[in-house]
Structures are given as structure tokens and as C-alpha cells.
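cron nightly-structures :: item 1 of 1
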Amino acid sequence: MHIELSLHMFRRALFVATGAIAGMGLATEICDHLLAPPWAPVLVPLLSLSYEHNLPTWYVVILHATCACLLVLHGLSLRSSSRNDATPGGAGPGSAGPARWLVLGGLFAFISMDELIQIHESASEWFDTGGVFYFGWVIPAGVLVAALGLWYLPFLRALPARTRRRFILAGVTFVSGALLMELPLGYWTERAGTDNLVYAGIDWIEETLELVGVSLFLLALLDIPGRAPDRLRIAIGAP
């Protein structure tokens, strides 16, 4: 049995799902803080983007894991092609070398795991900081992001222009949420705590930017010139 899904349909489904997850999270937070309905203790932990181990977490984990799989598969394909052609690194999207695709795949796999068990938050204990650096983990994370950005410059230059623009847009969107929005969130947390609508609003913006960023990156991976089919095909059983 063969199942086919057009990329156009997949894009639409991804945007609808991402919008629904973000919209439900925002709606529950607003209702909880302004109206305090009786269902809030049940639905807010289930749907809020500020909570862990709930529906948004499950969705984010799937998005990152899917990106990780696509990156690793693409890197392995490029490595195999370069061996067959006896050309280091191959050509086109992989001319910076398959290693960077594989490393990026490993990074997304780590982020997917981190979304479940929150490894990065333990790094805050290494720093006795306050204000915008209330969440101290942003310090090593910022250094790491800067180092990775420099290392990936040749990779980005080697990509086709359309793919490069889409990768950069996705990366800037994701980092703006995952890292930069932690600064005002940390400042407000130290000043007013977490049980208020302002905190919920800042955190919602942060998590939504992450959602949009990884969604854009997934779509860019599926639309690499010359490598992505018009349809996603899944074969079950004998051909």
C-alpha cells in the first residue's frame, strides 16, 4: 500500500497545526488570568506553551525530531554521493560537506530531547546572575550559537540562494524566541514572578517564535532544489 501526501497539503497542515497550538495556548492563558474559569486547572497545564510535558511539548518534540531525521538522511545521502563521485563534499546544497548536515541533525536531535527533559535549564545553576540574565543558561547558549553561526557560514554560502534565505529566516526566528526572548522574560520573572499575564504573554511570544522557526526550517528542508519530491510517499508492505 502506498500513501501519498502533496507537499502543498503538508505545508497547509503544518501551518494550521502550528497556528492551532499557538492559538489554544494563548487563549487558555488569557482566560485563566482574566476570567479564572473552572476548567482552567485542567486545560491550562494541557495547552499552555509555558508548561512542559503537554500537547505543545509533544508537538515541538515531533517537529525537531523530524528535522533531525531529514538532516541526517540528507547528510548520509550526500556522503554516499560524494564517495561514488569521488568528489569531496559533492556539489550543490552539500558542497560545504555532509558533516555539517549531520552535525546539524545531531543538534536538532538534542533539542528534541531537551524539550522533554529540560537539560538547558540546569545550566542556569552555574551562574549567579540577575536582571536580563536571570536565566543564566543564556550565557553559554549565546556563546555556542555564535560559534555555530561562524562555523556554518561556509555551509550557508554554499546553499542555493532560495534555500539560504529560508534557512536564515528560520534560524533567526527560532533564535529570537529560544534565546533573545529569554532576556525580557528573565527580567520580568525576577521582578514580578511567573504567575501573571505579562509573564505568560512574554513566554507565549518566545515559544511561538520557536514553533514558527522550526516549522519554517522543516518546510525549507522539504523544498531543497533538486532533492525534494512534489509528494511525500510512504510505502507499507510489499511493493
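cron nightly-structures :: done
The two ends are 7 Å apart (CA to CA).
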